[in-house]
Amino acid sequence: MDQEQDIQLAEDYIKGDLNESEKERFEQRLKEEQELREILEDIKFFQNGISRAFKKDIRESLAAKERMMPVFKAEKKTSTFAVWGYVTAAAVIAAIAVVYALFFTGPQAGELYLAYYESYPNLIEPNVRGETYPENSTGAAMDFYDRSDFEKALNIIGQIPENEKTGFLYLYEGICYLETGKPEKALLSFKDAQQKTSSLNWQVLWYSGLTYLKMDDIPNAQEVFETLSESDNPYQSNANEILNQL
Amino acid sequence: MTEQEIFESLKSGSIENLGIVYERYRDDCMNWLIRKYSCTEDNAREVYQVSVITLYENIIRNKFTEVRSSFKTYLFSIAKNKCMELHRANKRNTDLGPLMHLTWDDVNENIPEEQVMILRYCLDKLGDPCNTLLKKFYYEQCNMVEICEEMGYKNPESARNQKYKCLQRLRKLYRDTIVARTG
Prior knowledge:
The complex is a heterodimer of chains A (246) and B (183). Chain A has helices spanning 3-15, 20-32, 34-68, 80-103, 109-116, 138-146, 150-159, 167-179, 183-196, 201-214, 218-230, 236-245. With 246 residues, chain A is mainly alpha-helical. By secondary structure, chain B is mostly helical. Chain B is built from eight helices and no strands. In chain B, helix 2 (18-37) packs across helix 4 (71-92) and helix 7 (144-151) packs across helix 8 (156-182).
């Protein structure tokens, strides 16, 4: 065999692309042929070395970028005292809101829910025309979700093992529960979504707030929308509008 | 520049716009790592840099094939895993500096830094098309069909043959450089 073929074989062996009999034959040759052993070692070295050399370029370019950027300043951690301060403030605001709600008639919570609720768009498995998805897969569930068949979507999500569920999937599960009139279960799914993927924090808060509205639980809704109104996030202005109407 | 535009440019192998991604999410991600995972500022920076590179590698290696949610969501999930990896490594062995454990490299072979530098020099000296071809095959992990399409070879067999020649040239150049250095 010529060297070019041996190099190809060595690369396939490293990648795990040889079938069982090819692998056995290659390993047998490795025991017998010093030259093949050298080729294998050489390929491993160049494969890894070339990768590292190019990776080094990227590291250096990021390090250069870092040097050109403003110095990073860590956010100050909020003290426990401050957290309790916020909680107390939120509770006081919620209490005032309840009293206010008793004396002034605004739109009912359910009406607000209907005015602001929109299902969260499918970002994880965009529907491709004509595509068929394996049974009980996220793709199949999201296909039903896109077609507003929330019962069927829930049924499939329920069969996906817990350890395979992502934060996004829990969020969609919660929305399916909302759509099918099971707000208590929706809240549990939103909680799971937040635990799995903390970057869904704003979405979880928004839909939890709406769920409380649907359940006519004004104090909890108020508290959630207060949190949303305090930070810069995509739901801030809607949260403020709802708070003004509660 | 939209995320989709950045994604397309990174997918072509260019790192020109990786800096935009790095700048866009650095403060949020580092603060998040410090707050949520008790990273020191230095560790958070290191984790963040590794995560941006992993994001790039996953794009060029077709592991991250479309911007379904956002770079931010994906990047944060990589950073979280890297941070966990760092904490686990620290628990296993506290004698070594924590950053020693972070997987900058997804390879097991421990090639001394000096040899990597020499290889880098040889790749530069080799020039194109060999430099790009070897990068595409060994680093970006493109197959011969992709290389053939991207680099304009007649067919995958021609690309494979060219890759063999380039590798042989690199091996020779590397050996000559080592010999010249050791005198």
